[in-house]
Write a structure and sequence with these properties.
- With about 400 residues, the chain is α/β, with parallel strands linked by helices.
- It has two domains: about 140 residues, Aspartate Aminotransferase, domain 1 (Alpha-Beta Complex); about 230 residues, Type I PLP-dependent aspartate aminotransferase-like (Major domain) (Aspartate Aminotransferase, domain 2).
- It has a seven-stranded mixed β-sheet with strand order 2-8-7-6-5-3-4, with helices on both faces. A four-stranded antiparallel β-sheet has the order 9-10-13-12.
- Helix 5 links the parallel strand 3 and strand 4.
- Helix 2 packs antiparallel against helix 11, helix 3 crosses helix 11 and helix 3 crosses helix 12.
- The relative contact order is 0.17.
């Protein structure tokens, strides 16, 4: 295996880096959505040109359309270490989570409890919190107001026999800290509760083996993992069999359709196979062999190793700035490269100034009003968020640091 990620090979897989309109711009708002890799674009275009028909019919275009949709599901499930019947596509993770919350509302009894955090993106918080209207108790696992971190001991104090579900992020889109899924899941399972992990902010930094980590639900968004705008949802069989069908009555026995009543975009599902193509290309180029799950974890480690090298100088720089408050860990090993800072003024104003330096980033609350409020940050002011992924170059990080010198 290659010791380091080949950044030139990586960037060659993304048309955005040769796009004239983007030249001279360094992209640091990847937490809001990533560039799309070439295999996804090619598959999406092919589908719209050749196969944009109702899939699974007897004629050739329809047969090929269905086969490519099945390919996406089969390959992504293998990459994530779960069964093909345990992976569903939906219009978005927000929609998928809302549908799941309705299934739990029907399944749970009044007085039973769900634990949520105040570290989450609103998509994995709001839908569950609304269930209080149906008599379900909502317990909040709260972050440390200084660090933004979750403490597993605090969770253990909330767990008892009434808790049926624990919801938390793999990492927050504000705090960026990587939460210990295995430890949290073990504590929840020991108390008889299921686990729902929002992986949207972590998955861009490498798909994980959900089967090994153990959560009952794992959510991701393809448009942040170099693909089209689809939600990817893993629901393990044991839990899926307990929850009531949310789709058409005739789909009640179809595991991949029971929790996506609206139905996904056929072309985008098919194009999701391009993400598997991209991972396979990275694995082959870097000499990573094995089955899909092994290759995926090898690519994950390459991505994380490279990102960590780029992240630490940025964290060190911001930690030394008295004029800013760096949110979350200072050590890149425990943090995804999603870096939010509180400034004396509005984050959006700083983002606008950075844009003049060729830095594409954003300011605001990023649907993370709860963690910002918990840490005492004025929502009117919000935060500046700097986020990158494995296709970001060292030169672009250097450009960001130079621009921050001028703006801060």
């Amino acid at each position: 295996m290659a010791a380091e990620l080949d950044i030139d090979f990586v960037r060659g897989q993304f048309p955005a880096f040769s796009e004239p309109s983007l030249q001279g711009q360094a992209f640091f708002e990847n937490a809001g959505g990533s560039y799309t890799c070439l295999p996804v674009i090619e598959r999406l275009e092919r589908y719209y040109r050749q196969r944009k028909v109702q899939p699974y019919g007897p004629y050739e275009a329809s047969r090929l359309a269905g086969e490519e949709m099945d390919e996406a599901r089969t390959r992504l499930a293998a990459m994530l270490g779960v069964g093909t019947d345990e992976l569903s596509f939906g219009p978005s993770t927000t929609q998928n989570t809302y549908v799941l919350s309705q299934a739990f509302r029907q399944w749970m009894k009044p007085g039973q409890a769900i634990i949520v955090t105040d570290q989450d993106h609103e998509a994995n918080s709001g839908p569950w919190r609304r269930l209080v209207e149906s008599g379900i108790e909502i317990r909040e696992w709260r972050i440390d107001p200084e660090t933004g971190m979750l403490n597993v001991r605090d969770l253990e104090n909330l767990l008892d026999e009434n808790v049926r579900l624990v919801c938390f992020p793999h990492c927050s889109n504000i705090v960026g800290a990587i939460n210990p899924i295995v430890e949290i899941t073990a504590a929840a399972h020991a108390a008889g509760a299921f686990v729902c992990v929002d992986g949207v902010s972590y998955a861009p930094h490498g798909f994980v083996n959900v089967g090994d980590l153990g959560p009952d639900i794992y959510l991701a968004s393809a448009y942040k993992t170099y693909g089209p705008h689809q939600g990817i949802m893993v629901i393990r069989r044991e839990l899926a069999s307990l929850l009531p069908n949310q789709a058409h009555w005739f789909n009640a026995d179809a595991p991949t359709k029971r929790f996506t009543p609206a139905g996904p975009d056929h072309a985008q599902v098919a194009a999701c196979a391009g993400m598997a193509d991209y991972y396979a290309a990275l694995a082959a180029h870097h000499g990573i062999s094995g089955d899909a799950a092994v290759q995926t974890m090898g690519v994950h480690d390459l991505m994380r190793g490279y990102e960590t090298q780029l992240l630490q100088p940025l964290l060190d720089y911001l930690s030394e700035k008295n004029s800013v408050r760096l949110i979350g860990p200072r050590d890149a090993q425990g943090k995804a490269p999603t870096v939010a800072v509180e400034l004396p003024g509005p984050g959006a104003e700083a983002a606008e100034k950075l844009a003049a330096h060729g830095i594409m980033t954003g300011g605001g609350d990023f649907y993370g009003a709860r963690p910002l409020t918990a840490m005492g940050i004025d929502l009117e002011k919000g935060a500046l968020r700097l986020s990158f992924v494995h296709y970001t170059s060292k030169a672009e990080v250097g450009k960001l640091l130079n621009a921050l010198d001028d703006v801060l």
